[in-house]
Give the backbone structure.
Amino acid sequence: MRILPAIIVLFCFCSPAYAKKDYYQVVVADPYIELHTGPGKGYPIFHVIDQGEKIDVIKRRTSWFKVRSNRDVEGWVSFSQLARTLEISGESTRIKDPDWDDFLERRWEMGVLVGDFAGANVISTYGAYKFTANLSAELSFSQITGNISDGWMINANIVHFPFPEWRITPFLTLGTGVIRIEPKATLVQVQDRTDQIGHVGAGVRTYLSRRFVFRAEYKSYVVFTSRDNNEEVDEWKLGFAFFF
Amino acid sequence: METGIRIFLLRTVFVALAATASVGCSSRLVDTDADQREPVIDPAVERREVKAAEIDSEDFELSIFTGLMSVEDFGSNAVYGARIAYHVTEGIFAEATYGQTDTDETSFEKLSGGAPLLADDDRQFQYYDISLGYNLLPGEVFVGSNWAASSALYFIAGVGNTRFAGDNYFTVNFGAGYRVLTNDWLALHLDVRDRVFSTDLLGEKKTVHNIEFNLGVSIFF
């Protein structure tokens, strides 16, 4: 019990040492590694760290790592060089870039698509959640800008991937939503209208790199108008998405 | 880091000695075979194991900007807005931007003295876009003899929407920018952007160029 006050004093003394952040530490295994001034291969190399030296990995930006040497020199190391270092335990460094396996195991995805909606321009953003390898649900918002009318639509749809492991993988989609059409202000006043829509579609997507996906799709919409005839509208879009 | 540990060890020894001395005075704990006893406090500090997955990743960049925007036929005014960028690779980034500016009366409205072309509510020019950029020319800037910062000249293009005069216009944008990283996570931007769309607002259908200069500040997270 008598040492308790000493321990309390000790903790008061050493709190600054605890406040100093611990970083992931690796040991240089190659003859040397190169430090760039910035996170990119175009930035000049200004320092090298020799084999056997310990380095702290402070942060990462894309495929570059900011490190600090024993002598407090800070610089950026490429993914390929850092991947060849060793952990303190002697095992190889466990860093990785998002890759095809991460793509297959993705859960959330966000994307942007641009294209043509019955002659008008359309920009869509969407969010998707993957339930199984074959099935995702999506929610999208689209803005339509045409020569005679503007509008927007919101759609919820399910997407089926028959061959999820293919590099360029096709998909089928089915969904429903609402569309709002507003005639241009420069035209004589026509009534704005909101209608329900349904759609079927198909498309392809392919994994590009890191968290990037390319996507192209065709959708055929049926607008359930309040008039006698339903309208059919074709839409073509392409764009990109990120997955998490 | 090593200096930190050294200071810590010295403090540990100092405090341990002080504590032992004070205790020893009253209860005669100090004896000859002190060396063989367990140390009062084991000075070996376990370093916390940090896993590779805990490396802080900073691929997003959030920025606010302000500048000057010239809206064709409607004068030049202050513009302000915000951007968020995701850096996919060291070269490529995707960016979403929102901005707005007020517009003036056209020269015709001023000279003719007639009824204004647009209602006050419709004078505001708002845009958003989604663009892809490429850091083409990485480099460094030097300020004085003691300070160097990494920089990049980037080119960017994309599509979006403009809301102006009560209508929406599909808008293509392109431009270039200069980014200076003042430290790891804070950057300054100088951007030039042209936003192009076609409109029949003044009677005849034409393509309008709306050129914007802006200065922004961004943080990486």
